[in-house]
Amino acid sequence: MLLVAMLAGILALVAIVVAFLMRPARHSGVTVLAAISPAVVMLALFYSLAVHMHQSIGAWPSSIGERDFPVPLITHAYIATSYFSLLSLFSIFGWPVIFLLCLLVRRWRSCIYYLVLYAVSSLVSLGTMLLAPSQFLNWWWD
Hints:
mainly alpha
């Protein structure tokens, strides 16, 4: 597990260096928005769930699971956790493959800049999620 984390970290550092060496002269605003939007949506889902939970049950969850939660809160939690799972799976397994393909195919190299924007925005989003109240984070990770 430690080896996988080290490889991911090394790949991320290489991606950042390569992206800024190969960044396109003109950036497409639509493409930049598309690159950062998955992380922004995740952050919005996460914190809207935190607010929804606190307002629905009147406090932070005291136990693991969704026992005694209202149906709309359970639905919101399902959407947020499913989106987070899919985004995490893509970031761990799909992003490195796409990055390596972009490195190997000369015509695709201009996409590396946007892939790095995606990765950095995802890491910033994850770091921002860690700023949530600890009771909510305990519920979220379990």
